[in-house]
Write a structure and sequence with these properties.
This protein is of the alpha/beta class and about 170 residues long. The protein has a single domain, classed as Rossmann fold (3-Layer(aba) Sandwich). The chain has three helices and nine strands, in the order E-H-E-H-E-E-E-H-E-E-E-E. The chain has a six-stranded mixed β-sheet, with helices on both faces. It has a three-stranded antiparallel β-sheet with strand order 1-9-8, covered by helices on one side. It binds 1-O-pyrophosphono-5-O-phosphono-alpha-D-ribofuranose and hypoxanthine (HPA). The site of 1-O-pyrophosphono-5-O-phosphono-alpha-D-ribofuranose (PRP) has 17 residues, from strand 3, strand 5 and helix 3. Its cofactor is Mg(2+). It is found in: Cytoplasm.
Length: about 170
């Protein structure tokens, strides 16, 4: 089983510079903190690289949800841990590693919206455009086709998360 590079470490880091500057610009008139919500586990690498490049007042929050077994979604989003502060009247940025079927984000957005944040936006480093999920990603990274990808936080049965690039299994 060989791994092929789809998006190199250099391309990822360049894209993150670009996303961070879009985010800086989008929130430039906001004086309150922005709450960046990291969706564990997959987003940990992207979250960590991104927040270091944002020049705003950023607070961290973490949720852990999962729905995949191998490369197949169970269709059921399991919540493993949730926010540790309310998001009412906060500007919230959800940081995801991948939007595939959109099930995970649909679930997260539905519950975060119930908390009445001042604003709720999404960034995702990878997006599969094959599904009609209707999720609006304000700060999109790379659009890819229908390949199961690993690396840079993305796993196949918990493997490959620590690769610095995004690849696929041939
Ligand atoms: O758009 P979807 O089809 O819902 O897929 C996207 C979600 O799937 C992965 O999470 P996973 O359930 O594998 O948990 P993990 O982040 O712990 O790997 C990924 O990190 C996203 O959160
Ligand atoms: O392509 C993928 N790779 C890893 N995890 C995922 N979760 C949804 N899609 C993917």
């Amino acid at each position: 089983m060989a791994l092929k590079v789809l998006i190199s470490e250099e391309e990822i880091q360049k894209k993150i510079e670009d996303l961070a500057s879009q985010i800086d610009d989008y929130y430039k008139n906001i004086t309150d903190e922005i709450v960046a919500v990291c969706v564990l586990k997959g987003s940990v690498n992207f979250f960590s690289d991104l927040v270091k490049k944002i020049h705003l007042n950023v607070n961290y929050n973490f949720i852990q949800v999962s729905s995949y077994s191998g490369d197949i979604t169970t269709g059921k989003v399991k919540v493993k841990s949730w926010l540790d502060e309310p998001l009412e009247n906060k500007h919230v940025l959800i940081v995801e590693d991948i939007v595939d079927t959109g099930n995970t984000l649909k679930y997260i957005v539905r519950y975060l919206e119930m908390q009445n944040p001042s604003s709720l936006e999404i960034t995702s480093i990878v997006l599969k455009t094959i599904h009609e999920h209707g999720i609006q990603v304000r700060f999109p990274g790379f659009e890819i086709g229908d390949k199961f990808v690993v690396g840079y936080g993305l796993d196949y049965n918990e493997k490959y998360r620590n690769l610095p690039y995004i690849g696929y299994i041939e």
